[in-house]
Amino acid sequence: MKILRYSGITILNIGLFFVLLFSAVQIISTWDAYYRWHYEAHSIEETTKMNEEHFMEVTHKMMDYLIGRRASLDMKAEIDGEIEEVFGEREKAHMIDVKSLFVGGRVIRNISAIILFIFITTSFFLKPKLFFRWIQSLKVFFITSFLLIGLLGALFYFNFSKYFIVFHKIFFDNDLWILDPKTDILINMVPEIFFFQTTMLIVALFVIMVLGVMIIRKLLMSQMVKNWRA
């Protein structure tokens, strides 16, 4: 019985990890103001030969594509004074793979969130002691999450280029992600520095979310102990 209980708690904590991580990924990767700052800070207007209005429009369409609001990346914009197709076939093919990862992460997050919601609502009202055991276990979740995300964050921070390549080799079974800045708009819009900054922001937001969970945990534990003593 204990094995089942601990296994269940472990599954819940893994689910919580995925909920927080993939939520952080989606929030940062679809943050409009972040893209505006990035384009301005790194002079993307010069490298893409598009003005801010056009590459923000392209960015919005790209985000719509990744979250499923747009069927394809077929789009035109004014580039160097001429209206032309923004992305080439290689870029579009790569973004199909990126979308699969993005959608897959969202599915994992949503399923995990549903499982957590069902467990929390049922255990809190029907089996409060089981709920209490779970929030007690979040101390282990806190330590494990910080160690894991800290390790990943350190690897990417100190040698981003190496582990950026490793990431692509693990999650992509082709070389479509290797783009040419001379011909491909996508790599000029989001060069390596963009992914470095994005990764660091995701790590930071994940840490903030975990700290938020631990604050809620402490408040809940204190309240439940007070109620049982009353």
Overview of the molecule:
There is one protein chain. By secondary structure, the chain is mainly α. The chain has one domain (2-229). It is built from 9 helices and 2 strands, in the order H-H-H-H-E-E-H-H-H-H-H. The protein has a two-stranded antiparallel sheet.
Total discrete domains? 1
Structural class: mainly alpha
Q: Report on the biggest sheet.
A: 2 strands, antiparallel
Task: Give the overall shape.
Answer: elongated
User: For the largest beta sheet, what order do the strands appear in spatially?
Assistant: 1-2
Q: Could you outline the blueprint of secondary structure elements for this entry?
A:
Layout: H1 2-29, H2 32-41, H3 44-48, H4 52-66, E1 76-79, E2 82-85, H5 89-126, H6 128-158, H7 160-171, H8 185-189, H9 192-229
Antiparallel strand pairs: 1-2
Helix pairs in contact: 1-5, 1-6, 1-9, 2-4, 5-6, 6-7, 6-9
Give the structure's gist in a few sentences.
This protein has 230 residues and is mainly alpha-helical. The chain is built from nine helices and two strands. A hairpin with a 2-residue loop joins strand 1 and strand 2 (82-85).
Which features characterize this protein?
two-stranded antiparallel sheet; mainly alpha; 230 residues; elongated
